[in-house]
Design a protein that fits this description.
There is one protein chain. The chain is mainly α. It has one domain. 80% of the residues lie in helices and 0% in strands. It has seven helices and no strands. The radius of gyration is 17 Å and the shape is globular.
Length: 178
């Protein structure tokens, strides 16, 4: 593969997205796995505990943490790298369920349009890789902003789109072989 190959750019873009997703999900998972129920409720997790109980919250935490490991380790170690795709699918499923939960709780979905619009634009093939990196960075920043503003639907949909980017990219555009 030469240095101008589109796959090299896609590999870099996907590693960046995988790293950002892994960091976000490892942190979220560790928090759900380790904090007391009182601390979790005080940090804003009360509705989740009320709806599902702390046992399910801990299970979600383990799922997020293991998903974070799965986003990086199989590909980095080149041991069954297809597991990275399946980890991203698992993360996407978590985000779909979280989005449904937040939408049912009456949280706004209007802010998510800004996250989804860039992916609908058609970009010249030469710029596709760098546009994907730029979109990923913008989406991560927007997701952090919306999460800090208490707009959980926007945050979960942003992470869902990034997870689906990894699924698509690692299964078609920049496959890593064992």
């Amino acid at each position: 593969m030469n240095s101008n190959s589109p796959n090299k750019g896609w590999h870099l873009a996907l590693w960046i997205v995988q790293g950002l997703l892994a960091a976000a999900f490892a942190a979220a998972g560790l928090m759900k796995m380790t904090v007391s129920m009182e601390q979790f409720v005080q940090s804003g997790g009360g509705p989740l505990v009320d709806a599902f109980g702390m046992g399910l919250v801990r299970f979600i935490g383990w799922s997020e943490f293991l998903g974070a490991l799965g986003l990086l380790l199989p590909s980095a170690l080149r041991i069954k790298p297809v597991l990275t795709v399946w980890a991203a699918v698992g993360i996407a499923i978590i985000m779909v369920l979280a989005t449904i939960h937040h939408a049912m709780a009456g949280e706004s979905v209007a802010a998510t349009l800004g996250l989804l619009l860039p992916s609908a634009l058609r970009i010249k093939p030469v710029l596709t890789v760098w546009a994907a990196v730029g979109i990923a960075i913008i989406m991560v920043l927007a997701t952090i902003h919306h999460a800090m503003a208490g707009e959980s639907v926007a945050a979960t949909l942003g992470l869902l789109v990034l997870a689906l980017l990894v699924v698509w990219g690692r299964s078609t555009k920049a496959v890593i072989r064992a």
